[in-house]
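User: My advisor, Dr. K., asked me to get a structural model of this assembly before our group meeting. I'm new to this, so sorry if the format is off. These are the inputs:
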Amino acid sequence: MSGRHVAAIVAALLFAGGAAAQEQSIIVQSTTSTANSGLYDYLLPIFKDKTGIQVNVVAVGTGQAIKNAENCDGDVLLVHAKPAEEKFVAAGFGTERTDLMYNDFVIVGPASDPAGVGGMDDVQGALATIADKGALFASRGDDSGTHKKEMALWADSGVDPTAASGQWYRETGSGMGATLNAGIGMGAYVMTDRATWISFANKQDYAIQVQGDADMFNQYGVIPVNPEKCPSVNVEAARAFADWLVSAEGQAAIAGYKVADQQLFFPNAPGN
Amino acid sequence: MQSLGDAFGLAVALVFSGDADLLEIVVLSLRVSLTATAIACLIGLPLGALVAIGRFPGRNAVLIVMNALMGLPPVVVGLLVYLHLSRSGPLGFLGLLYTPMAMIIAQTILIAPIVAALSRQVLEDLHAEYSEQFRSLCLTRVQTVQALIWDARYSLLTVGLAGFGRAVAEVGAVIIVGGNIDHLTRVMTTAIALETSKGDLALALALGLVLLVIALGVNAAVQSVRMTAARQAYA
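Assistant: The format is fine. Below is the predicted structure of the whole assembly, which you can bring to the meeting.
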């Protein structure tokens, strides 16, 4: 095979299928919890049918999603860590933040419930009990929205779990699903959002042990990236997507997404 | 271990259902990794050959660096490529992040050192055998390199396969620069990582089996080319 042949093959491979990407498209920087639960697989085809806009989702932890958006590598940010989102907007990276939907966090654990927290609805009390008993607890440890929330709840409960990191407190440094897999593998309690838990397929003998505390509320927000900071942003398409999500139609679509007959996200955009 | 049995069943069902999404992912995996392998060979083979026959100051240092770069962690390559291709990075204006091209670039960087280092070893051994003959024929350096590469072409195919194997199996680099976007940058390994994180271990394992079969197919294709060529040569 001569050099010219190789070059021709390379060129053919490089450009094969390259012509198809002419349609309007945007990139949404978002969280693993929304993507893993299948919400986007349900919402995006509805939005595309209506507008023709292709929405590409990059699903990472909230911390990384915000960082990527600050680097202008996205048109819309859809995450769940309100203080960090407000900081993002205040720094000029986003045009405005709108409440989009909510669900809640739960603590799941093995059927044997080694710390005896099953049925508790006081999350700070449950965490303090887990720490007191030295029962295994697997944390995201990745600066995601869920991790930020977990750390805030630990702080409220008066325990500093990171002092026991590597002992009963295990920081996986991974996404929600990977942390659930690891936690279930080692018999540890895990705090997860309800949507990921309901759609998670490797539950084994795990069940929800702690739920129902108002402090475990999980709010998602949507923010278009500011074109003044990031000129590469597809302003119109980003605006159209964010507007649709908070419109009556988008909100109804979010409410309509169900797994195993359970609604995963509850729309709460203002004005609906 | 019921997952393993489930996975075999699922893998077979997936392959025979002709699932369009699976086909798309497989085709993209092959397109990205084969392109990266081809480019890495275009860069790595001549580089390996030059170092193999060259005698220059600092050659040992070059050898050590080349061999060490074979161990480049994919996630580090992914990060470096991300920082360059990000809109806020020096090459951001190209708009390549989260495209198959970004994945090709990352995998090329990952495997070019493997191709260069392994072909250097192959060609150097061959050169030691033939160097007197080359000298008696008064070949130029370019002619020597051409003759060596041609003579070692079957060994170099294996070098290319080693590069391809590394590229098609890695997940750390492509998930950062590709973003694992459905219908755009999702390849076999990132799909496996995604299904694992959804807790769908049987499906993840089934995809892994499909990936293995693809790797087997590519290797079998190369082997048959080699055997056909060998038969012709000795016919």
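One thing worth pointing out at the meeting: The CA atoms of residues 108 and 207 of chain A lie 5 Å apart.

User: Perfect, thanks a lot.
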